[in-house]
Design goal:
Number of helices: 15
Oligomer: single chain
Strand order of the largest sheet: 4-3-7-8
Strand content: 5-15%
Number of strands: 8
Length: about 525
């Protein structure tokens, strides 16, 4: 689908979340985010220090070499008082956080710059593994602020032809980095495709593939919806990770990384948030299990097991037990493979959530849904009042647009359920219980919209979709995984949204399309 707003007013294009590259750069230029410092990236919004892509590459190489040699842990002087000791440890923690931030910034510089080059050239840039984009007259757009400038390109279209699309700058939340969006994946990463073609290395087979998912994560959730609707529970196995992010190297004080971990049913130790406060939380939530394949303690360990230690430890992840490798960690791609590749073993083979004749419409609807699913994060992680207000205005516009469409037709693409409904549903059911409170998306409510509430009831009651919903884990994840936003990990009392979904809906008589 061609970007809307090609040659149109930038402000109106921004409101819809669909902008051409020309409009994107014009808008960023007005806001001071595109400057004359070609190929340079500021380390943070308040810093005057710049790092070129070449310097970022060298910095990460030094970090990798240092990691191989091992680090000597500093010890506090023996004559410090208790107050001075607390201060010393706080300083060490700040240094560790700063080192981590610099690593992430360097990675963002390389990945964002490569992404910008791919986007400006139409995607699919060649080049050898690890090579940097060209400079000089053929270089990509001038950029002076890496943080948030490149939210990267969404992978769209069919599993074998994933397009890339520019998006408006947002506030790069930690949550976004661990999501379906994950736009800044390495350019050289090669996805495997499950295929029915003769001789395919990744052929569809029962009990060959295994999903690692979180019931809290909306991108995992939509994969599980497809798995449930197609009746693949006995064909593609799964493991549900623990919902609250924990330290992935708890015995290494120099490694502050937090992320998805596997439950330990035998543990009797109280569980807190990653900063050691909050809770205590249960050591196991519903369906949380240890890693059944390698016995890994965290998803990070699993990625390292696959030789992907420099990637992001995201879920969902589709694992091939036969070859011992990751097939995909991109939710849209996994959804399409589950929908189309396992019909021989599916309990509901006749259901097609991405029919060929409707793919353009489904993809266009995906462009509409994206500013909603991503918009809640832009609102929630805004760092200025201006960013918050602008992000909330854009969110309201798409929320109202979705409500308007669903007032005239039963499903978001027409008269039958598609993958677009899975993508929309997982955001709407989290809206009132999580996004309206935690991300301050206060001006809209699904419960206050008879249309959207009834739509959610309809989807929830379709097939076994209700079995994929776990609001307890969703709330636990969001409210307890970011101590910087919710220090004591207090979980607000539920509004009872899920109970409302059990009530009958009245959407069966709606027309196929508006």
């Amino acid at each position: 689908m061609a970007s809307e707003g090609e040659g149109a007013d930038s402000s109106s294009a921004a409101a819809t979340g669909k902008m051409s590259i020309k409009d994107e750069l014009a808008l960023l230029s007005k806001s001071g985010q595109v400057g004359a410092n070609k190929n340079k990236f500021r380390l943070d919004a308040g810093s005057t220090s710049f790092m070129t892509p070449e310097q970022a590459k060298a910095f990460l190489a030094e970090q990798k070499n240092a990691s191989k040699k091992g680090t000597v842990q500093p010890t506090p002087p023996s004559d410090l008082s208790s107050g001075e000791l607390d201060s010393w440890y706080s300083q060490q923690k700040a240094k560790q956080a700063e080192a981590r931030r610099k690593r992430e910034e360097a990675e963002a510089i390389l990945r964002g710059y490569r992404g910008a080059w791919d986007g400006s050239k139409g995607g699919g840039g060649g080049g050898s593994s690890g090579s940097l984009p060209p400079s000089g007259p053929d270089a990509g757009p001038d950029v002076s602020d890496a943080r948030g400038m490149f939210q990267t390109m969404e992978r769209q279209g069919s599993a074998g032809n994933l397009g890339k699309k520019w998006r408006k700058q947002g506030n790069n939340s930690e949550e976004e980095k661990k999501s379906e969006i994950d736009y800044v994946k390495r350019k050289e990463a090669e996805w495997k495709l499950i295929s029915n073609d003769p001789g395919s290395k990744y052929a569809p087979e029962p009990d060959r593939y295994h999903l690692y998912v979180s019931l809290a994560c909306p991108w995992s959730h939509r994969v599980l919806i497809v798995r449930a609707l197609k009746g693949l529970e006995d064909v593609v196995s799964m493991t549900v990770v623990y919902p609250i992010w924990q330290r992935t190297r708890p015995d290494d004080p120099s490694d502050p990384h937090t992320g998805w971990v596997f439950a330990n049913p035998e543990s009797e130790a109280p569980v807190t948030n990653a900063d050691g406060v909050g809770g205590p939380f249960p050591s196991v939530f519903h369906r949380n299990e240890p890693d059944p394949i390698f016995g890994c303690k965290s998803v990070r360990d699993l990625y390292e097991q696959a030789g992907e230690s420099d990637g992001k430890d995201t879920v969902p992840m589709l694992w091939d037990k036969k070859t011992g490798t990751i097939v995909s960690r991109e939710s849209l791609q996994i959804m399409k493979m589950l929908n189309g590749c396992f019909n021989e073993f599916s309990k509901n083979a006749a259901l097609d959530l991405y029919p060929v004749a409707e793919r353009n419409k489904i993809d266009e609807t995906g462009d509409l849904i994206y500013p909603l699913s991503n918009g809640v994060y832009r609102v929630g992680f805004a760092t200025t009042q201006k960013d918050y207000d602008e992000s909330l205005d854009a969110l309201e516009a798409v929320f109202d647009k979705v409500e308007s469409i669903l007032s005239n037709q039963r499903y978001i693409c027409g008269g039958h359920v598609t993958e677009a409904d899975a993508r929309l549903f997982v955001t709407l059911i989290r809206y009132d219980e999580i996004y309206s409170v935690y991300f301050k998306c206060t001006t809209r409510s699904v419960m206050a919209s008879p249309i959207l509430l009834d739509y959610c009831r309809d989807i929830y009651q379709t097939g076994d979709i209700r079995e994929t919903v776990d609001m307890e884990q969703a709330q636990a994840h969001y409210y307890c995984s970011h101590p910087e936003l919710n220090k004591y990990s207090i979980i607000p009392r539920s509004k009872g949204f899920i109970k409302k979904l059990e009530q009958p809906h009245d959407r069966a008589g709606l027309s196929a399309s508006s």
